[in-house]
Here is the input.
Amino acid sequence: MPFQNLIIQRTIIHEVFKRTDAPTPVTPSYGTQVIHLEPDARDALQQRITAAMGHASHGLEMSIRKTGTESIWSKVKQIVDAPNNEATFISASQSIAASLADAQVSRSIPGGIVVVVYGMVGHPGIPFTCIIKAEPHAGFTRKVGDTGVLMLEFLKDLILTPQAKLYKIGAFVRQHADQAAHDNPSGGWRGFIFDDLITAGNRQSAAHYFFDTFLGLAFPSNSAWQTKQFHTLTKDFIRSANITDEIKSDLLGALTTYLKVDQGGTIQVNQFAATYMDAAELRDAYGTYMQGKDFPAAAIPKDISEVIGALRDRKVTFSNNIRLTGPVEQFQDRVRMRTIDGDVGADGVVPKWTEIIIRDRIRDQE
Here is the structure.
């Protein structure tokens, strides 16, 4: 992500509030002038933004979806197009805060401080605008009393401390001004988010109201992301399907084969179903499930770069902390599992057991 050599040139803050029972949002408390940051404070804020946006697990590049006159991108563009106009910066930032207040439709969403930053990033520098929503939290600071005794002072409204996870960031960078076109006004721009709720394995944890409703950004529909979604959604469907454990095991193995071993350059829901699911009812249920998750029915390019770790090993877990793990290729070639009837219990119930055949002898044990 292009957030090295970040230099802040203007900063302003506003405050948005938690929704009440009223049908309209509480009017934000607007800042009316640019904040002068001391060098230490400016350096600290620059470091916070650089560290957050460069975090591989919690920071993501997004697609710019909303480009209308009331979109956040349009308001950011006003700021970038008038780099020397302080009044435009203040006015546009106030409008940005108002948009965030409108986007926070649920009373469960907390209020917070909105920090709007304009500056340059990269070398040579290109303009960017950053919007931070920071939720205050409590903490302590060291204080020397009148008698020289060290004391703790309680601070109720701390924001943007390094350890705090209570902030979200949206950033827009104009990388190539000449790429904008009538049918693609945001051409040459890049959008980013930081949200500590995001993990490497679950991008959907990000606050939807912030990145979608407010910022007008969307997860990019690139092939690596779609391949990962295909893997995750298909695996979830197989695990929850009303089929035998043997069929589940076979289908999970088939999913890995389809993505990792099959030489085809694309993946497609109907193709996977037709190839590996024997029952028509199961194929129909799978297609309906994927459609309900908004996964495209058309073929998409296969790119396993974001899912390669999950395709490396196969793991089967039983009760009592018993696990069977091995490389996917070896697992498929050498391991056979099937469900059998166990010994009748004292209550007369016949339990289901799993018979495992490994086509090899024991090499070592501890």
User: Anything to note?
Assistant: Residues 221-366 form one domain. The mean pLDDT is 87. Residues 86-103 form the longest helix (18 residues). The chain has two domains: 7-220, 221-366.
